[in-house]
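Notes from the 1:1 (GR / supervisor)

We went over the backlog. Supervisor wanted to see one worked example end to end before approving the batch request, so GR pasted a single chain during the call. The sequence is below; no edits were made to it. Supervisor asked that the structure be written out right there so they could see what the output format looks like.
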Amino acid sequence: MGAELKNVIVFALGGVRHAAELRWVREVVTLGFVTEIPTAPPGLAGAFNLRGNLVPVLDIAALTGGEPGPAPRQGDGALLVELDGVTAALRVDKVDEVATLGPSVDGKAVLDGRGRTIPLVDPAAVIRRALAESQAARGDDAEVAPDVPDLSADGLRPVQDPTTGARPPLGFDGDLTLG
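Structure output shown during the call:
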């Protein structure tokens, strides 16, 4: 049985080429004005407005165990990724190509046309790590309200906002009208 080919987007970050599977990437965007979030952990580099939606900008290096990269600026490139309703931008220096490449022997990288190894970045793991670090920085964890179900009382809305991770106050039914 042959090795499974992967559809990837190859990008540069800090002078090193990386790849991410296309199944996670919604689009490649240019960052607008990025607002720094003073109390955020190092992996959350800021946030920007994308077509009326506030999108967090994540620092891949900081979230994968490396040194935090430079602060994102207006005009930088980013991969817009989505996981379980959470959308985030992964800042990149440059997008090189979209390609179908074979995996390395260990499966943690892909091989380009010249046989060079390109490490794979797992956007799902990056987003999960960013969420965990943000919740830890806020002091928010699963033990705060262990008896709160995963859905609201009507079973239609998540108890936790999928983008920010914020929880509505107890007794809040989601109705913002005055009548």
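Supervisor's comment: The helical segments are 60-63, 123-138.
Batch request approved.
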